[in-house]
Amino acid sequence: MNQAMNSHSQSVPVVEARDVKVSFGAVRALAGVDLVIRPGECVGLVGHNGAGKSTIVNVINGGLSPHEGTIAYKGEERGRTGIAAARGHGIRCVFQELSLCPNLTVIENTRIMHRALTGWGWRGRAAAAIRSKLDEIFPGHRIDCSRAVGDLSIAERQMVEIATAFADVGQAPKLVILDEPTSSLDASLAEQLLAHVRTYVAGGGSVIFISHILGEVLSTATRIVVMKDGRVVADRPTAEFTQAGLVQAMGSVVAEKKDARVARALTTSEPILSLPPRHGRGLPFKAFRGELVGLAGLSGHGQTDMLVDLYHSRSGNWLRRGNPQVAFVAGDRGYNGTFPLWSILNNLSVASLTDLSRASLIDERHEVELGEEWKRRIAIRTPDMENGILSLSGGNQQKVLFARALAVRAPIVLMDDPMRGVDIGTKQEVYDIVRSEAENGRTFIWYSTEMDEICICDRVYVFNSGAIVAELTRNDINEENILAASFTEAVTREAVA
Amino acid sequence: MNALRLLVQKPWIWSFAATAIVWFITIMFTGGASAAGLSQAALTFAAFSIIVGIGQMFVITLGPGNIDLSVPAMMTLSGTVALKLMGVDNAMILPGLGVAVLLGVAVGIGNYAFIKLLRIPPIIATLSMSFIVQSMAIWTNRGIRIKPPALLADFTTSSFFGIPNVAIVAFVLSVIAWVLLQKSVYGRWISAIGQSIPAARMAGIPVDGVRLATYVLCAVLASLCGYLLASFSGGAALNMGSEYLLMSIAVVVIGGTAVAGGDSNVPGIWGASLFLFLVVSMLNTYGLGAGIRLVMTGIIIIAVIMVAGGRKRGRA
Amino acid sequence: MKLNLSTDSVRLLIPALSLTVLLCAVFYLQPRAMSYTGLNLLFNLAVPITLATIAQMLIMTVNDLDLSMGTFVSFVACVAATFLPTDPLIGAAILLAAIAAYAVLGIVIHVRELPSIVVTLGMSFVWGGLAVLILPAPGGQAPVWARLLMTSKPPLVPMAIVASIVIAVVTHFIVMRSSFGVLIRGVGGNTRSVERAGWSIIAARGGAYALAAFFAVLAGIALVGLTTSADANIALRYTLLSIAGVILGGGEFVGGRVSPVGAVIGALTLTLAGSFLSFLRISPDWQIGAQGAILIIVLALRLLLNRLEKREKGR
User: Can you tell me where the transmembrane regions are (chain C) (predicted)?
Assistant: First the structure.
């Protein structure tokens, strides 16, 4: 393998990013990244959420122009950049969130993705190309290419998207970027994909492979690039890495077990909340007073849905209940978290307005007091609570959402993976508050994609395909068990990587 | 200096500035002879668009796609039914008003029922509703023009210390609307819903309840406006509401309310209503025809939203 | 293949069914309508409505809504009744400029991220004003060729039906089969991914608006061909009719899910609904209300069908 790499390292790189810097507002997403991709290599890109993987990918595919630094395709230092230029150089991308048009058929989506498909009879050519590629990558698939994508299952959509990226329609792909491509594929499909990536790379193509399943990366990539806080911290051939070495390079904080919490006699009392199994499958759900309940599993397997359903069933949609039972901390801030037009204070107080008002008129003095109290308790870094919410960094916006939920008198707090992309300092502050609130008897139901957060929970439910497949307590909560449980339905034949 | 800068930042200030300019130009042209008359006419006619405009503003605050197209039909129906019920009897003025309000409540509930049950966009729901309401108005009206009770007709056409009574009514309603919007929990809630329904729902806001209340409020204000307009013009006509469909939306937009929702203001509606009336009368004084007037109105509306700019559509 | 039927074809099922039911009802009430002249009368005004519905559908494909459709068609009708017969060149230039204006409108709406509803609302004043300027009082005269075309009597099937079929076939080809159609539906379905594939969304939106304007121009000319004269308010109700037609035909407000064949059927249904109501001898007071009720019933039916479809899929 080393020899192969040496022979390729002489050739012109497919893409060459030099000292790329990108910042979003106050947040520095990339702090000077160098990344060179040569023909015939599969680069595994790993790092924690918020390390800058997606951002560098967006720079490479032309969707984002770097604020500093250069990007060159095929060695053309002063070449054109932008989406069209990147595609013109054969760069294709499979995104983390599905990016097909649901209202179009598979064939029509192929047309959208391949601008070279022009002229009469494009339908026939598109159909032939996508069918043969699907057959090649996923032999035995049963996808009807004349169906609308919206009618396909999630896994089928992902397969179509991957096949579209690899398809050669008048213009061969040079570099295919796969961002978490296996997240909705089961083990056998994932293995088919990985095998195809290996043959494709052996044939001289290049791949950037992003996955949180380190086993996949180690088995597929020829070279691994580790990112942390917007920088490349390691860039070596795969052979020089082990799973443990990778985890270390990513800078995982090994969570200390809070043994002090374990002593609490939790399960003796009546549960504060209990739900039957979701969709009639899997295990039922219970939560007790003062407990930290973790929801784990691969992302998008029904954890958020459960939290949202739980919230809806326990709060009024026509009238507000006098005593709120639940509060919610959003993870997707832009979707169901912040109110972008409002000040920090208004964003914080919105869930407790009825407590702050008399005869339905808001007592503004009260509101300001509440704001000041939480600004102090949770250390929101702003000169003035009247500033717009968007003036805050992501981490501080997240703190405001925490304060919003904690300011409500509700005994149960639901958290929808709220710490994605938040810096480690903020996380520690929030963890402390969560712990102390739990001591005071509040129950937290916490969906998280970060293993160290799951590990500080008292009890963990693992999700797979919308149902709870395992319940872990105390000492059983560790990365290995959770990963094993995450695949219990999908994986039966294969040991978990 | 600081106060001036604060004032310039208000979204409604521009509609007032434009109003002042147009008022001045018109007065100049007529040699200042009709300043009082012009102002009084402007206040009277603006009052009606202010009342419907406030209702429409609350609906538009609810976010993209929320518009009540049943406003004109509602005005016609309430005007027709109320006048018929009162039957020129002064004693029936208050019952007539009560019936008008009740009709508004019923139509508002109907509007939201369609939106919610049929899961159709508010435009189509309120449009279908307006067909039905318009039919009811035609059926009640039967082409007979009933005069309003004398007391009511006097009230709507006379002035109090030079200020038209209808303008005073509009002012009182505006103050209530301002308090609702800026100071009450309800105002915060509709603004939150207008920015993001999922976020509002997850912050514990009873989204359906608030939206229902808003559509009812809009219909009631349209109903009140129809009641007053019919009394003012000496009887209900079947097309009396028609010009208020576009007018109610236009005054809200020109007044500086964000079309994408979540950010509204009441004063701007006054500025915009006065402005639109004055533009019409200015163009009239210059002897320009209806065609130019319409084109100008359209260009002004488009120019205002171009300058005010759209907000990001969000991810939905 | 069997499943394939259940998405696109189901979308067409309700409109086709409602048209058939309505047609049967009309024939039952008025058997004499079952003839060449009868059909011609029933569907007399269908052509301009169908064209306007197609125009509205194109705008809805890119997730927008055109509230100025009625005034625009009226404006075109005024131009067609004044300039086209006497100065065809000036008339054609005006209409081309109007199409260009629509393209610009689409681009502006996209670039400034403005709500199409309000922009087109403003434009409805502009078109209305221009129409009054061109033709202050009802009158004018239809171009001879438009008149001939609209009143021609092809063998066996009346003109209105032949024209509807031609419109359905042509627009089906443009919207459902051509690359451009795929592109604009893609913009409606997932703008971001189309953009990421390297397409120009500005061009797509501008193109969709221009094409919509083209069909609206045809609608205006066809209308004048039928009525022989125009006035500034001649087609005001087309705004609502066109939106309702698209929805009746199984189109949706967002998501790029539209069906040209469905839209044509929807427009025919609406045309027929008018005749049906008059045959029913419903008092004229309730005619508008009955139209609202028909709209609501069809929408409710569609909701029911979507639910069933979803349940089917869920299993």
Answer: 12-29, 41-60, 90-109, 116-136, 156-175, 206-228, 234-254, 261-280, 286-305
Mean pLDDT of A343-356: 92
Q: Which of B301, B307, B311 to mutate to test the interface with C (most CBs of C within 10 A)?
A: B301
Output the domain CATH number for residue A16: 3.40.50.300
CB neighbour list of residue A321: distance below 8 Å, 6 or more residues apart: A315
**Between C116-134 and B243-254, two packed helices, what is the crossing angle to 10 degrees?**
130
| CA closest to C192 among chain A residues | A99
Average pLDDT over residues B145-163: 89
Q: Given an 8 Å threshold on Cβ–Cβ distance, is B195 in contact with A342?
A: yes
How many domains, chain C? 1
Class of domain B12-308: mainly alpha
- String of DSSP letters for C229-288: SB-TTTTTTHHHHHHHHHHHTT--SSSS---HHHHHHHHHHHHHHHHHHHHTT--GGGHH
Domain boundary among A250, A278, A309: A250
DSSP A420: T
Q: Which two tokens stand for residue C297?
A: 């019933």
Q: At what angle do helices B243-254 and B207-232 cross, to 10 degrees?
A: 120
- What is the residue range of A443's domain? 259-486
As for how many domains chain A has, the answer is 2
ipTM of the complex in this document: 0.86
Model confidence at A300: pLDDT above 50: yes
Residue type, A263: A
pLDDT, tens only, C218-245: 999 999 999 888 988 888 889 888 988 8
Strand partners, B274: none
Within a domain: A494: no
Confirm or reject contact between C280 and chain A (CB < 8 A): no
Positive or negative torsion for Cα C44, C46, C49, C51: negative
Which one-letter amino acid corresponds to residue A483?
A: L
Rg (CA), chain A: 24
- Å from C2 to nearest chain A CA? 11
The winner for highest mean pLDDT among A256-260, B55-59, B90-94 is B55-59
